[in-house]
Design a protein that fits this description.
The protein has four helices and six strands. With about 200 residues, the chain is α/β, with parallel strands linked by helices. It has a four-stranded mixed sheet. Strands 3-4 form a two-stranded antiparallel sheet. Helix 2 (about 105-140) packs antiparallel against helix 3 (about 145-180) and helix 2 (about 105-140) packs across helix 4 (about 185-190). The two termini are about 20 Å apart.
Length: about 200
Amino acid sequence: MIQRLLTGLFCCLVLSATADARPLSTTKYTYYAISGNTAGEIYNAMLRRGPHVNGAKAYAATSATSWLNGKLIQAKSCVIENYRLKIDFVIRLPRIKNEKALTGTDRSRWRQFAQFLKRHEETHRSIWLGCAQELETQVRAIRAAACNTAETRAIKLWDTMRKSCTRKHDAFDAAEQYRLMQHPFVKLVLAKKTRTARAAKAP
């Protein structure tokens, strides 16, 4: 159903390991082309050509690849020195080939919706960066008698961060559902009885 469509658009997180007060990040925007002469045709084009999240169709998606870096230093206690997390984001959004094909109302509401999607994606990026910053602070505070213990604690914090951050994404998506249903573009599509689709939850 359309009220669930935003839930899974944004966070296909791919995590791998390579480590300051703020996590390093890059963001790349990519676009898939859509076309149509009405809001309904544009909407259906997004469903046909848009990304998939957990096997379900979505309007847009964000992937985040991260690298962890740090050095275990053994002295009186073991610490993790120069710990740093870097995340590279790729945000995929729809782009109309020819906006002039839309009427004034459809074009205006489409542009609003495109900005809505972009802001939503960027909010998920901000959530991940906030989680990463908390992780860096906690890992840098680790002190252990042995380095294997310090490493184990760091790995546990990493796993805990991923789970807690996913809950934050889920809460944000749930809060967005009303805004989605009230969006002028979506209301226009529903008024014209355009078909809807269901998307997966954020991983």
